[in-house]
Amino acid sequence: MENNKISVGLDVGTTKIVAMIGRKNDYGKAEILGIGRAKSLGVHRGVVNNITQTIQSIQQAIQEAEAESGQKIEEVTVGIAGQHIRSLQHSDYITRANSELVIDEEDIDRLINQVHKLVMLPGEEIIHVLPQEYKIDGQAEIKEPIGMYGGRLEANFHVVVGQVSSIRNIGRCVKSSGLELEGITLEPLASANAVLSQEEKEAGVALIDIGGGTTDLAVFKDGIIRHTAVIPFGGNVITEDIKEGCSIIEKQAELLKIKFGSAWPGENKDNEIVSIPGLRGREPKEITLKNLSKIIHARVVEIVEQVYVEIKNYGHEEQKKKLIAGIVLTGGGAQLKHLKQLVEYITGMDTRIGYPNEHLAGDSDEEIASPLYATAVGLVMDGLKRQERKRIEKAAEKETVEDVEIAAAPIEEEEVLIPPIKKERRSFLDKLTDRVKDFLDNAE
Length: 444
Known about the structure:
Layout lengths: L6 E6 L3 E9 L5 E10 L3 E2 L2 E2 L2 H19 L5 E6 L5 E10 L9 H11 L8 E13 L2 E4 L9 E12 H13 L3 E7 H9 L2 H6 L1 E6 L4 E7 L2 E8 L3 H12 L3 H11 L12 E4 L8 E4 H26 L12 E4 L8 H9 L3 E3 L20 H35 L19 H16 L1
Parallel strand pairs: 1-6, 6-11, 12-17, 17-18
Antiparallel strand pairs: 1-2, 2-3, 4-5, 7-10, 8-9, 8-10, 12-13, 13-14, 15-16
Helix pairs in contact: 1-3, 3-11, 4-10, 6-7, 6-8, 8-9
């Protein structure tokens, strides 16, 4: 059955690697068939720094997901994040040779391709070019220019830039794990698709995805993504701080953080104490919860403030750009107690925790709808969307062939020709995926 093709999201994170298998159910929701996870050892701050270890972790996660779902995995959609990702605003224009003709797809492609000629720093490449709004002959705030007349077409773009080598390394790991790359997506975008509702994106919202190694930000307003940023700190630095501050080993620090950690120090009484077994015959250590939350608080404040700077960079303080829906927190780091209150206190913006159940089938496992899996769910959805698009394109090609045959027959006066279905413009990510694929094929 062609309809129920599976899609696999592969979230290569700093702390964990998750492989998630899903398909669309009859109601158009994503049904998760299986999930596999492995400890991620070869990734630092969202960037692969040990290919061999990453390949092993990917294979482990994939095998686990295959065993749970009984499906064979061949293609995956992966996410890219990491400290090398930055975004910039850019406006560009084209002058059209003939303003008597309406603006069509090709004009927009020409404009977007022009943005791709921007000169980047060495080793950087444009990952995404997202048009914000268009101007035609000086008339501003046009959302959809296709079909309008005009000589000068200009647009503001949100351009996301990343390091080619990092993206290729991820491609390399996937390929060496015996998998095909179905698509590449920016992780903040994937998480956003999984946890945000359309109303929030319209009203204006900032999605903060706190991962192990990085914190990703995506800002939406009027349904369009307006700003993205990756901040090179996440849950792991909090664990590091606890480890240093309490002189304990990492495993214990992580457990302390998860079990007793809180982002709000006023919460704990002075006499609340946790005892931690000493190493190999040493005395146990006693740690007050107040101290623990002070350590966590200091680091979380730092992360949140950096994110808030990015939200202000987008222009949240201007009336027109105000983010009415406030902030949505997701990712593993969003499970920290009292984080919501702290974020509201620092930013003064409404905050909620985002669970990736926006598009999941109703009977999904509780575990999957945890903020921990937001990116993985988003990647699965992205893969499903991509398959849908390919299907529509195939159907459109078939129809075009039939159209040509109809057109070849003599037309009676009254007959009206049906225009061929408009092919969706390929997103730059599809082109990027192809480029990474080509590069890997030639590099073998």
